[in-house]
Give the backbone structure.
Amino acid sequence: MDVLVTGAYGRCGTAIIDHLHDDPAYEFTYLNRSDRDEDHPYGGYDTVVADVGDFEAVRSAFEGMDAVVHLAAYPFVDGNWSDVLEPNIVGTYNVLEAARETEIESVVFGSTNHVMGMYEEEFAPDLYEPGFDLRLSHEDPVRPDSHYGTSKVFGETIGRQYVENHTYPDQFYALRICSVRHEEHDHPYGDAEAAVEEGRIERGSEAYRQEVKRMKATWNSRRDFAHLVDRCLQDDEVSFGIFNGVSDNDRRWFDIEHARELLGYAPQDNGETWDEPPA
């Protein structure tokens, strides 16, 4: 299967490289706004350098592809409308229009937990404790917490529009990705340790403990995220689906039964199995 990955050198794209690139089922092409030097850990891959906000620049990369994993986006909740407009709104439209024109069957879309972010705003920090009575599914009303979250609601919705109104693409998977991190912080203590390294909090403080509690709920390990993408690419049943991208954490407030049932998602990681950061 020939697969184009946009935003390939971000946190989620590199998880795909780390865990799926060598899978003989796939032949990947990576699209990113910039390339990496040959001596970079992600240097030397087949890369198309282009911005998804520029349709003419990205259109040719779609030729001959069977599927697209669309991850390119402005990813910050503190962004304003102008920050998200080109990369998230125009860029997602461009990806779907290019997929339509080149007759690509399947689009896997990197959505975000922030389309449901106001649930967290309402119930945190109690939400981070074990046993809190909330489990969000694909059927619950969206409650975006930011322009970023709203831009991803748009992406989910226009994806449905395309599969229900056009011949191509005929499959669209929206992944509401939770906390995927770079390899060095790919564990439930990752955000807390990063904050310590940046001098924002002290290890062992209440702020540190809160970061850990949240990550034990929202962690989506790199291998579990790549596995979920693989399950979408291998599926031939779903026309339009929304799936939560999170590991099998005891504290999670996002449902994964939908992904288990429809896609065969079988995450390996659970934040609760960690009681300290890696040495």
